[in-house]
Amino acid sequence: MDTRLIVRGDDFGISHSCNLAIEDCFMNGVLTSAAIIAPAPWAEEAAAMARAHPEWCVGAHLTTLGEWRGYRWRPVLPHDKVKTIVDEYGFLHQTPDAFFAASAGAIDYDQLEREFMAQADLISNGWGVKLGYADYHYINGNRYNAPEYGEVLRRVAKAYGVPLSGYEGETRFTSIYNSAPGKKLDVFLAALDALEPGLWFSVHHLLQDNAETQGLKYSNVADEKPESTAIHRTAEAAVLTHPAVAERIKALGIQLISYRDIDI
């Protein structure tokens, strides 16, 4: 078996800084796939970038949370049509606990599915991006004893005929997000060295360093890193564009692929 690796970038569209970082990692790094958050304010710019680069594999980052402090998002559908997945003012919840606790078991998964379908439709038909895959943003339903959440994700991916990231037999590659900023490169290179034959995927959150990026703070304080979200995410982008990473991948004979290369 060959060693194949998908390098996935999440949160495409959350900010202009994120979009620039993803563009840089596609053009000058080892990023092979990235997914757009349709409800996010900079999603339309992300879609324009994707249209300008049809060689990029771009997906739908299906979203029920807007996790940032003082930076609220609404669903794509009118909020009164998806009342069980938003707060009393029509905004997306800011933490998984709030999403599940506020709903108190009363989530209407038909509403969730309609919202996810609307997000995928906006990206593909509204903004003209050929979807390469789907994945989920932040919430893993299995952790909250909500298998219906994953079932909705599968149905949406199937409706668009695309792979659902993490559900196609891939093994998740070592995450560098929790590594200290100055250690991320070493951790990533060591993980590459340890890769065995098979299909792998790594997940990354990418930003460029500027005032906009420095303003991003998690609503859930426990998710904040001591060095700040901005420093961690800019450090991840630096890893993906570091020459040593591309050189190590080539030396090890690892095949970089995207979700377009996955048979479903």
Describe it for me?
The protein is α/β, with parallel strands linked by helices. Helices cover 38% and strands 15% of the residues. The chain is built from nine helices and seven strands; from the N terminus they run E-H-E-H-E-H-H-E-H-E-H-E-H-H-H-E. Strands 1, 2, 3, 4, 5, 6 and 7 form a seven-stranded parallel β-sheet that branches. Helix 1 links the parallel strand 1 and strand 2. Helix 4 runs parallel beside helix 5 and helix 6 packs parallel to helix 9. It is globular. The two termini are 18 Å apart. The model has no long low-confidence stretch (mean pLDDT 94).
Short description:
It is built from nine helices and seven strands. The protein has helices at residues 16-28, 43-52, 96-103, 109-126, 147-160, 184-194, 211-214, 229-240, 243-252, and strands spanning 3-12, 33-36, 57-62, 131-136, 171-172, 198-205, 255-257.
Observed structural traits:
264 residues; alpha/beta; 9 helices
Shape: globular
Q: How large a portion of the residues is in β-strands, by DSSP E?
A: 5-15%
- Gyration radius, in Å: 18 Å
Helix content: 25-40%
Please describe the biggest sheet, giving its number of strands, its sense, and whether it closes into a barrel.
Answer: 7 strands, parallel
Question: What sequence of helices (H) and strands (E) makes up the elements?
Answer: EHEHEHHEHEHEHHHE
Main structural class: alpha/beta
Topology readout:
Blueprint: E1 3-12, H1 16-28, E2 33-36, H2 43-52, E3 57-62, H3 96-103, H4 109-126, E4 131-136, H5 147-160, E5 171-172, H6 184-194, E6 198-205, H7 211-214, H8 229-240, H9 243-252, E7 255-257
Parallel strand pairs: 1-2, 1-6, 1-7, 2-3, 3-4, 5-6
